[in-house]
Design a protein that fits this description.
By secondary structure, the protein is α/β, with parallel strands linked by helices. It folds into 2 domains: 2-141, Glycogen Phosphorylase B (Rossmann fold, 3-Layer(aba) Sandwich); 163-329, Glycogen Phosphorylase B (Rossmann fold, 3-Layer(aba) Sandwich). It has helices at 12-28, 43-47, 66-77, 92-99, 130-141, 179-186, 205-214, 229-238, 248-256, 308-311, 315-329, and strands spanning 2-7, 32-38, 54-57, 84-87, 106-109, 120-122, 163-167, 195-198, 220-222, 241-245, 260-264, 281-284. It has a 6-stranded parallel beta sheet with strand order 3-2-1-4-5-6, with helices on both faces. It is globular. The chain starts with a strand and ends with a helix.
Length: 330
Amino acid sequence: MDNYLIIQTAFLGDVVLALSMAEYIRSMDNDAHIIFVTTRVSEPIASHCPFIDEVVVYDKYKDDKGLSGIWKLANKLNSRKYIAVFTPHRSLRSTLLTKLIASGKKYGFDKAALSWIYNNRIKYESSSHEIERNLSLVRTHWIDISSDLLLPVIKVDTEKKDSICIAPGSVWATKRWPVQKWIELVSQPELAEKEIVIIGSENDEEIANEIELKAGNNSIRNLAGKLSIVESITKIAECKLIVSNDSAPQHFAMAVGTPVITIFGATVPRFGFYPVGQYDKIIETEKELACRPCGIHGKQKCAIKTFDCMNSIDVRKVIDEIKSLEEKLL
């Protein structure tokens, strides 16, 4: 058995976009035993990837907090030897953990904290998609210069329904299309006869409740804050399509094969975190805004107080994309 270790303990979306690494390793080594280190909140995602054999939780804010926690986790992981360790996460903690792992081959990005620790430093190509960047780590190990994308895979059991999912939340306020826009969207006559499913975390409940309360649509199922991560992913897989902000649900959708329409505001697709499924669509402002993007994650408030990057996106543009996508899916 050939042990390989992947370390990705960033946000949920980042974890999804690292899953393709496991599929690639499996395609190159039939004897591979792939271990994926991630956070407690992301553990269910990695556990539902069919190419990952084992998930190890790095509870970096509680049980594994601080340097002692890193040391403890490293000792646990070092109960076996690894052919290679791949660390797409560029944080100091992940680099230090990688340093302590028993392996002669460690792959990380040149932009990682303390990147000199990696004996195989890979250039972080800012212009590439995040999936391609992550795959460059494992491809280097096999001296593979190809650049084809492998879409991440999350396996859930469900059947498709004629419903539309919306994900109006985000940790970052400037990544959220204004709530009034969502209300107007689900109130459009084109959606009046369709079941609209709202998903999100507990932090998104206030937004979801306002949409449900004020929308002129009696076919809304508000599930925000009521589902686990896997249940949310299953619901996305069940829906015909999803409209999402630039947040984790767009990546969930890509991993279960549900077409996604992603609305970009403060952030931009060129950062490399956009959906790349066959029918996926990106919507962003047509205005030339000198302030955009305002950060890799956006901000909690619009610095110039206009929020033009989101306010200028017309609801009818989203409706037109929904209609176009529905026609393609017939």
